[in-house]
Specification:
Phosphoribosyl-aminoimidazole Synthetase, Chain A, domain 2; 4-stranded mixed sheet; globular
C-alpha cells in the first residue's frame, strides 16, 4: 500500500481524518473511546456499500467515498442526530493502485467535513470495493426521531426534490445526456443533518429517502401502523427532472418516486405544526414541501391528479 504497508497507510492517510479527536486515540488502538455528553443519547447507524451494487465500477474513487459517507450520514439526519464521528471498515480491491486509494481518502476527507474518523479496519481482497461505515451522533434524551409515531391526521412533508439521483445514475451509466445537477445529486449526496436536528420535537416520524420515496414512505406506514397518501401533483421536482418528465406521463412519475439515492427527508408532523414546518423551508439548504397525509389503514398510495391511486409493481429498491 501507499507509503509501505497497511499501518503506514493508516498513519499517513487515515490518521489525519481523525481531526485530532481524542476518541480516536490516534488510530493506534483497536477501539475508540467516546464519552456521551450529559443528558444526551448516543445514536448509531451502520451501512455497508459494495461496488457494482451501491456504486459503479466506473465511478471515480472520490465519488465512491462521497456516496458511502453521504448515505451513512443521512441515517443520522433522519434520526435528528448531531454527528459526532464515524468508524470505517474497508476492503480494498487488490487491483487498486496507491493513487486510487489516495483518491478515496481525499473524497472521504471532503465529504466528512469536520466529522472525525475515530476507528475502523482496513483489509484487501480479490473482490470489489466494500465499505462499511458506522456513524455516531448525539440527540437530547428522548428527542430522537423514529419511523413509528406517525398518526392519522398528520401531514406528510419532504425536503428538496425527488428523482434527481435516479436520473443522475442513468447519466453515470451513459443512458442520458450529461446534466451536472442530476449527476452531482447521484455522485455527491447531501445529508440533511441540520434539517433533521431542526425537526426534533416537531416531526412525529422521519426517514431518509434511500430506496425510493414510495418504498420509504411504506417503512413509516408499516412502523407506525398507518396508511400514507401521497399527492402526485405536490411531489417537488427539479427543473431538469420536469424537462425529462415531459412526454413520460404517469409511468415517468412512477419511476421518479420509486428511484432511490435522493437522501431527502420524508417526515410526518401534526397538522397544527404546519406553520412551524413551513418556517423551516429554505433555512437549511433546501425547501420543504407538503406532499400528503397520514390516514387510518395500511400501505402507501400515490393519488394522481384525476383522484385515482396509481399502481406500482415496485415502490423502490430492495436487496432481496
Amino acid at each position: 500500500m501507499s507509503g509501505g504497508g497497511e499501518f503506514n497507510f493508516i498513519r499517513q492517510r487515515l490518521r489525519p481524518l481523525t481531526r485530532g479527536h481524542p476518541a480516536a486515540l490516534d488510530l493506534m488502538d483497536d477501539a475508540a473511546i467516546l464519552t456521551p455528553r450529559p443528558g444526551e443519547s448516543l445514536v448509531l447507524a451502520s451501512d455497508m456499500l459494495i461496488e457494482t451494487v451501491h456504486f459503479l465500477s466506473s465511478d471515480a474513487p472520490e465519488v465512491m467515498a462521497a456516496r458511502a459517507f453521504g448515505a451513512n450520514l443521512s441515517d443520522l439526519a433522519a434520526m435528528g442526530a448531531e454527528p459526532a464521528g464515524y468508524l470505517m471498515a474497508i476492503s480494498w480491491p487488490k487491483s487498486w493502485s496507491d493513487a486510487q486509494r489516495d483518491g478515496f481518502v481525499a473524497g472521504l476527507n471532503a465529504a466528512a467535513g469536520d466529522i472525525p474518523l475515530i476507528g475502523g479496519d482496513t483489509t484487501s481482497a480479490d473482490a470489489p470495493l466494500s465499505v462499511s461505515i458506522t456513524m455516531l451522533g448525539f440527540v437530547p434524551e428522548g428527542a430522537g426521531l423514529t419511523r413509528s409515531a406517525a398518526q392519522a391526521g398528520h401531514d406528510v412533508w419532504v425536503s428538496g426534490t425527488i428523482g434527481d439521483a435516479g436520473l443522475g445514475l442513468d447519466i453515470a451509466r451513459g443512458k442520458l445526456d450529461k446534466q451536472e445537477h442530476l449527476l452531482s445529486r447521484y455522485q455527491y449526496p447531501a445529508a440533511r443533518t441540520e434539517l433533521g436536528q431542526a425537526l426534533r420535537g416537531l416531526a412525529s416520524a422521519c426517514i431518509d429517502i434511500s430506496d425510493g420515496m414510495v418504498a420509504d414512505a411504506g417503512h413509516i406506514a408499516s412502523a407506525s401502523g398507518v396508511a400514507i397518501e401521497l399527492e402526485a401533483a405536490m411531489i417537488p421536482l427539479s427543473t431538469p427532472v420536469l424537462h425529462w418528465l415531459e412526454g413520460e406521463g404517469d409511468e415517468g412519475l412512477k419511476r421518479l418516486v420509486s428511484s432511490g439515492d435522493d437522501y431527502e427527508l420524508l417526515f410526518t408532523a401534526p397538522h397544527d405544526q404546519a406553520a412551524k414546518v413551513l418556517a423551516l423551508s429554505g433555512r437549511h439548504g433546501c425547501e420543504i414541501s407538503w406532499v400528503g397525509r397520514v390516514a387510518e389503514g395500511e400501505g402507501v398510495s400515490v393519488i394522481a391528479a384525476e383522484g385515482d391511486a396509481m399502481s406500482f409493481q415496485s415502490g423502490g429498491f430492495t436487496h432481496f
